[in-house]
Design goal:
Blueprint lengths: L1 E4 L11 E4 L5 E4 L8 H4 L15 E3 L5 H4 L2 H6 L5 E4 L1 H28 L13 H5 L5 E3 L6 E4 L2 E7 L7 E7 L2 E5 L22 E5 L12 H14 L3 E5 L6 H13 L8 E4 L4 H9 L8 H8 L3 E3 L2 H9 L4 E5 L9 H8 L6 E4 L8 H6 L4 E4 L2 E4 L3 E4 L9 H7 L9 E5 L3 H15 L3 E2 L6 E3 L1
Parallel strand pairs: 3-4, 4-5, 5-6, 10-11, 11-20, 12-15, 12-16, 13-14, 13-15, 16-19, 20-21
Antiparallel strand pairs: 1-2, 1-22, 2-3, 7-8, 8-9, 9-10, 17-18
Helix pairs in contact: 4-8
Length: 452
């Protein structure tokens, strides 16, 4: 077989791994959008190294943009096969793709109106109309069920934590077990069940987002309480960049608990996303995938104001009173959060809470690295807001979690590929894996191909 790394190699975005069997069957594990620095974002406009029409199917680990966000382009370039995923991932993928398309359309319109694009006419990567063409191809699979895809290929999905519906994938073909981790969550997640560890693998494809670090042993609930109350006392606004279906539910759960315990003030708590109520519906419709009851979900949702329409966003921005806003996007690469930052990042009473991984080149990464100004829609804004990173809310497991995930293997894999990580993270994890397990680890380059 041939395995070609066409995304998330040497970076944390654009997850795409192409597998081709000896019989000529081709399939992708994930089909994500590149985010972050401009050279990566420009890759989104390139065609695949093989004709999209020759790909038989896609196996989707979960519904984050960097894992599913390029599916509309795949379809536009001729893909007509099935996209296999879990039921929550199907719902999230629909929401994420529509949200992504709307953000791109809004940003293109704004760039054209304000003449801030370097192109003659700014165009979205894809439209809402194109995103919807993906939906008929989405096909639900049940976790822990072996699915025969023909040509001697069988697959099974098993829980990965991370976000609702996320799974790792075991692929059996040509007498080998290939295990693709997807993104691995944490054993102590406040809402999701722990990841299931693989028992057998000949080839492992392991994410390495936090391969070089340990999450701090701090209580994110206490941190949220502290920074919300401090900001409230200054009459300021707390802005939490996050996709509506991501860490947002964990943050909302902790805020709900704090409010019930009367530890945070009675001010507006806003979830601002074009996805709106649809984000809640994913949790309502899939209670077996998380720890909350349906009653808990309903009660929690009552605490939050949902802004779906952009006019509602403008009204919230113009209301300068104290409030907490959870707004897309999580890495501040686009979306509604930019409108809030335009108006609030220059105010010293504002607090911006960074709660997830920030890829190289994103505004979120620049903020946590101490940027004095950030560029939004062609203009620079001085950073006077307080920037706080809360690592305890990360959806990704740290180095210890990633090592632990492989601790129950009953055989020694032929090779472990470390993907979905920046160079320092993957190299440190490679060294650690060799020290602990003696595994033969490889860090593939973008476009590199391996034959087995």
């Amino acid at each position: 077989m041939k395995i070609k790394f066409i995304g998330a190699a040497g970076t944390v975005t654009g997850s795409k791994t192409l597998v081709e069997t000896n019989e000529g069957v081709r399939f992708l594990i994930d089909c994500g959008m590149f985010q972050g620095i401009k050279p990566l974002r420009e890759l989104n406009w390139d065609p695949l190294p093989v004709l999209a029409s020759t790909i038989d199917y896609v196996l989707l680990t979960h519904g984050h943009l960097d894992h599913c966000g390029w599916l509309p382009k795949l379809v536009e370039q001729g893909f007509e096969g099935k996209i296999y995923c879990t039921a929550p991932t199907l719902e999230i993928t629909k929401l994420i793709l529509i949200d992504s398309a709307k953000i791109q359309e809004e940003d293109a319109i704004k760039a054209n109106q304000e003449n801030t694009s370097k192109h003659h006419v700014a165009q979205p990567l894809y439209t809402v109309e194109l995103a919807k063409k993906v939906f008929p191809l989405l096909t639900v699979v049940q976790p822990d069920t072996l699915i025969n895809l023909g040509n001697g290929i069988a697959v099974s999905f098993f829980l990965a934590g991370h976000i609702i519906g996320a799974c790792s994938i075991n692929v059996q073909l040509e007498g080998k077990n290939l295990v693709f981790s997807g993104d691995i969550g944490r054993d102590n997640d406040v809402l999701l069940f722990p990841p299931i560890k693989p028992q057998k693998a000949d080839l492992v494809f392991l994410e390495s987002t936090y391969g070089d670090r340990q999450h701090p042993d701090t209580d994110p609930k206490l941190e949220l309480e502290k920074y919300i109350n401090e900001t409230y006392e200054k009459g300021g606004t707390v802005i939490i960049p996050s996709f509506a279906v991501e860490r947002a539910q964990s943050i909302m759960f902790l805020l709900w608990e704090l409010k019930k315990e009367r530890r945070i003030p009675n001010i507006p708590y806003i979830v601002d996303s074009p996805m709106g109520v649809g984000a809640f519906d994913v949790f309502f419709n899939n209670t077996k995938w998380h720890k909350l009851s349906l009653t808990d979900c309903q009660e929690m949702s009552k605490m939050f104001v949902i802004n779906s329409d952009y006019q509602e966003t403008l009204a919230a921005i113009n209301n300068k009173g104290a409030k907490v806003v959870i707004a897309a996007s999580g890495m501040i690469t686009g979306g509604r959060v930019l409108g809030y930052l335009e108006n609030y990042i220059g105010l010293p009473e504002t607090t911006i809470l960074i709660v997830g991984f920030q890829a190289e080149g994103t505004r979120g990464r620049k903020l946590i690295e101490g940027a004095k100004a950030i560029k939004i829609f062609g203009s620079y804004y001085t950073v006077r807001a307080k920037i706080i990173e809360i690592n305890g809310l990360s959806a990704h497991g740290d180095q210890a979690d990633l090592i632990n995930w492989l601790s129950e293997l009953k055989n020694r894999p032929h090779k472990v590929f470390l993907v979905h990580g920046e160079s320092k993270a993957t190299d440190e994890l490679r060294i650690k894996m060799r020290e602990i397990f003696g595994f033969n680890c490889a860090v593939p380059l973008m476009g590199q191909e391996f034959h087995f």
